[in-house]
Amino acid sequence: MIVALAGGVLAATGPAVSASATTYPSWADVQAAKASASAQQAKVDEINGLITSLTQKVADTQAAAAKAGQVYQSAQTKFDEAALREQTLTEQAGSAEKTAAASETQAGQLAAQLGRSSNSDVTSNLLSHPTGAKDLLYQLGAMSKLTEQADGIYEQASQDRGTAQSLADQADVAKKALGGLRDDAQDKLEAANNASASASNALADQSANKTRLDAQLTALTTNATDVEANYNTGVEEARKAAEAAAARARAAAAAATTTPNASGWVRPSGGSQTSGFGIRVDPYNHVTALHAGVDLAPSCGAPIFAAHAGTVLFAANGGGYGNEVILDNGGGISTAYGHIVNGGFLVRAGQTVQAGQQIARVGSTGWSTGCHLHFETRVGGAATDPVPFMAARGISV
Known about the structure:
The chain is an alpha+beta fold.
């Protein structure tokens, strides 16, 4: 099921596909098949086919999830770069507007000065007062220079006004394009969530059935009589082991929880900053592009904390971001955490988390050259530099 969350982003809160309708053989079916060689072989073929199908479905859905994550990342990057360009153009247009206004003010002041000077008939004074010719000729020269200067200032003011208008027009066009790019990124995020849910369903189907199918093959192809009993014992032991592992993970996550400051924010991980926000040459693919966050480099497997309370929008393959968690932190703000180690997710889509709660572990998945956390802060869906964003909330990254 997909639900809308704050900020207009969609998130998966349950399986995006229906449970598998495949019918699996029971232990009674296996025993019945041993009545004849032909029935036994048919059942062996059936089970082998089911095992192959399970394995292939897992591979297919995982590949689809990886592709959907890459498509999402590409759409998000396009939106981020367009948002940065619009912001830059808007700032440049504002600066150009101030320059144009100053040029127009200077031109107006010169126009007023020229107007006052023109009220004095310098030529008439020169003819009627020849003894003051030197001063009057100086006035004529000064007026000529002033006029030349005025022409230059008028021309500059006109150019400055044109530049300001051009930048404002470009910023307006860029802003109008952002809506479609934002919607596309959200659609791709929803598709990546759905693909991840399909992959999880396929893996769960395989986990729930392959071990039993392998045991049933053993029962069909050997003379062992205790296969079903051993299988049931193994299932129970695996269940207990899984519960113990989950309990240890919960205890470790609880122990790693950090306390938020008065603003309700925490540093998302330890380690120093190794790469900042902005245009750079990507160290992984060597392409010049926007680095939409900051990189923090604690040790591999180090805890990753929710920078602020919120709801998990995404916890899946994020393409170049690797394994990624995205949180809707409310008020149009979201935070993203990339390159999580395989098996390092501690939250799922739709889950509510608290500030300082451990949500994952640091890894090097996706476009990464070493263990680190790629951390993003977003306002209205657009990436913003996490350094001043977090500093305004009392956190240094």
